[in-house]
Amino acid sequence: MSSRDPVSGLMTLEEVAGRCGVTIEWLEELVRDGVVELEQHGGRRVRAEVKLRIQRAVRLERDLGVNAAGVAVIIELLERIDEIEEELRHFRAR
């Protein structure tokens, strides 16, 4: 049985860890470093959409050996680049 809440779209850390092939401890480290945010009223739950962010973190850690603190910085920069590219596409479409 899935621990995902279909109404709120939340998943437990345990479910996310299982789906992404990582340990709970590593996810908790990502939470401490700001890569993953726990929901205010969800206890140890995260939004299902955070799975993509965690998958990026996994690739950075496994493929490049980046620690959780480094992952946080890199993901923030990659997301900012995505935002800037989207703004540029919008600007060029005018």
Task: Give the class-level CATH name.
Answer: Mainly Alpha
Instruction: Predict the CATH topology.
Output: Multidrug-efflux Transporter Regulator, Chain: A, Domain 2
Distance between the termini: 48 Å
Report the strand count.
Answer: 2
Shape type: globular
Secondary-structure element sequence?
EHHEHH
- The DSSP helix count reads 4
Radius of gyration: 15 Å
What do these coordinates show?
The chain has 4 helices and 2 strands. Helix 3 crosses helix 4. The chain has a single domain, classed as Orthogonal Bundle (Multidrug-efflux Transporter Regulator, Chain: A, Domain 2). The longest helix is centred in the C-terminal third of the chain and has 25 residues. The radius of gyration is 15 Å and the shape is globular. The model has no long low-confidence stretch (mean pLDDT about 85). It is mainly alpha-helical and about 90 residues long. About 60% of the residues lie in helices and about 5% in strands. Strands 1-2 form a two-stranded antiparallel ribbon.
Structural descriptors:
single chain, 94 residues, mainly alpha, Multidrug-efflux Transporter Regulator, Chain: A, Domain 2, 2 strands
Summarize the structure.
With 94 residues, this protein is mainly alpha-helical.
